Amino acid sequence: MTGNEGKVTLVSAGPGDLDLLTLKAAKVLASADVVLLDDLVNPEIVALAPQARVIRVGKRGGCRSTPQAFIERLMQRYARRGLHVVRAKGGDALLFGRAGEELAALRRAGVRVEIVNGVSSAFAAAAGLGVSLTHRDHCQGVIFVTAHLRDHSEPDWHALAATGMTLAIYMGMSRIESLCATLVSALPTTTPAAVVQWAGSANERRVTGTLGTIAAHARAAGLGSPAIILVGHAIGEAASFANSAASFGVHSHESSIEELRRRA
Amino acid sequence: MTGNEGKVTLVSAGPGDLDLLTLKAAKVLASADVVLLDDLVNPEIVALAPQARVIRVGKRGGCRSTPQAFIERLMQRYARRGLHVVRAKGGDALLFGRAGEELAALRRAGVRVEIVNGVSSAFAAAAGLGVSLTHRDHCQGVIFVTAHLRDHSEPDWHALAATGMTLAIYMGMSRIESLCATLVSALPTTTPAAVVQWAGSANERRVTGTLGTIAAHARAAGLGSPAIILVGHAIGEAASFANSAASFGVHSHESSIEELRRRA
After folding, report:
1. In whole angstroms, what is the distance from residue B24 CA to residue A16 CA?
2. Active site residue A165
3. Could you tell me the residue ranges of all domains in chain A?
4. Is B226 on the interface with A (CB under 8 A)?
5. B264, exposed or middle or buried, with CB in 10 Å at 0-12, 13-18, 19+?
6. How many contacts (CB atoms, under 8 Å) link A and B?
7. Assigned CATH for B7-116
8. Chain B touched by A119 (CB under 8 Å)
9. Minimum distance, in Å, between the CA of residue B145 and any CA atom of chain A
10. Which of B101, B116, B119 should we substitute to test contact with A (largest number of A Cβ atoms within 10 Å)?
11. Which EC class heads this enzyme's classification (chains A, B) (predicted)?
12. B38, B89, B92, B165: which is the annotated catalytic residue?
């Protein structure tokens, strides 16, 4: 690469807490000329790229404030001017979030592209609950699935439930009731479940319950998007389940596992 | 927490490259009194905790050099002395790796425990291939599954294949042939597949192919554990698939997407 050859780096901005950025992401941001910022990225991330021009390109939950094609053209335009473009995406850039389309478009355009991994929000949700996603007493793995499909169809919830794996459902809050009702036709109503909103950020809030109760608990607590819905027996190991008094409460980010335990 | 109350922090050490640690992991390591180090963690991580006593507690691939119960007692003992114990685990601590058991043991013992997330190696594998795990033209999610089960049984590969999701298979290299043969009974032989060894580290090596060819390619290239096996049409978007000349070659970490593209 010559000195004036531009490039695009897809940077995983993690779940919100800037301390959950990787060292590599921080270094890349420090060398960015232009930063394209998604809605779900903590806006304070720009402090790590004070030298860069920042462009907000959010398109939250289907309301396309910035069309995808425009974002792709923008990245190509700046890279062709020899600039280092950082495309900051929430969570890990390679899980949902249309990185696949952006990588394909950049490759077609002959633009050099690099990727920096990060922490996806389901991992942060599990950390907040104090639970492994895959406790080996309970399952052999975890499924990360989006409930927000392009054609407004549904994932095959029966097939997913049949695997016996932990489910980590992204973008499911707008239809959590119907989603749980469908899962209940394949899994016991008593299957542990949790909802974690703004996982891994200062605003994190979470409720725990079962497939039969979690939708009502989440609504009662006022939890909405963005949130991760976790389902499965591995989730039943969460500290709050061991503490029946706290089981159906809302826990803020400040409630450490230890605090939950002490309250018991 | 009083000044002399100890605690354990489960720190996700990521896939190898120390730059893929989170800022939070680096801060926690800098405040550790004792670091318990797994085999799959880059040993150079100890440079981030020069003040700490380092104890290697690896138990690679079933040969139990340090029994799990001993590791759990070790953590408790040091925490009870008022020390800050960092348990460094490869990838993200909450995906495989027995964090569930360790969290339960620490909670039972009344030891305060915190969790720091990180990058799991399947994400690094996808980054090396230049591909999203969930390109929305191809799938609605990804399944992280371990092929190494406690009772030497097999995951239900048919049920996993039936979901239509990308498969990210951990710890499958010792039986990649039988694993692919089983998947071929549920998925087309032509389904794209890849193997990435030491993903996200300086030693990263990868091969691409199909369910029908990947086991032979991986063996021919001498790839073994630790490696991630990726299966699914989203993986077919990898840069190396667009380049038939390179499709069956071995790519080192140094082969950037751009270099692969140039060789075409």
Report:
1. 13
2. no
3. 7-116, 121-263
4. no
5. exposed
6. 223
7. 3.40.1010.10
8. yes
9. 4
10. B119
11. transferase
12. B38
Mark whether A92 is an active-site residue. Answer: no
Q: Is B38 known to be catalytic? A: yes
Best probe of the B interface among A22, A112, A167, A260, by most B CBs < 10 A, is A22
Nearest chain B CA: its distance from A69 CA (Å): 15
Mutate to test the interface with A, among B28, B59, B102, B132 (most CBs of A within 10 A): B132
- Give contacts of B237 with chain A, Cβ < 8 Å: 100, 103-104
User: What does the DSSP 8-state code read for residue B112?
Assistant: -
Beta pairing, strands B192-197 & B227-231: antiparallel
| Nearest-10 Cα torsion for B248, B251, B257, B258 | -100
pLDDT of A66: 72
As for the ipTM of the complex, it is 0.90
Distance separating alpha carbons of residues A262 and A256, to the nearest angstrom: 10
Q: Does B30 touch chain A (CB under 8 A)?
A: no
A150 touches chain B (CB under 8 A): yes
Per-residue pLDDT 10s for chain B (264 aa) are 444 689 999 999 999 999 999 999 999 999 999 999 988 899 999 999 999 999 998 765 455 567 888 999 999 999 999 999 999 999 999 999 889 999 999 999 999 999 999 999 999 999 999 999 998 888 899 999 999 877 778 899 999 999 999 999 999 999 999 999 999 999 999 999 999 999 999 999 999 999 999 999 999 999 999 999 999 999 998 866 654 434 344 565 444 444 434 443
Q: What is the distance between the alpha carbons of residues A249 and A243, in angstroms, rounded to a whole number?
A: 11
- State yes or no: cis peptide before B226, omega within 30 of 0: yes
Q: Which helix (H) or strand (E) holds B87?
A: strand B84-89
Who contacts B233 (Cβ-Cβ below 8 Å, separation ≥6)? B135, B137, B138, B139, B191, B192
pLDDT digits (tens, 9 = 90+) for A66-105: 788 899 999 999 999 999 999 999 999 999 988 999 999 9
What average pLDDT does chain A have? 88
CA proximity to A126, closest of A2, A228, A1: A228
**Fold for the domain defined by B121-263:** 3.30.950
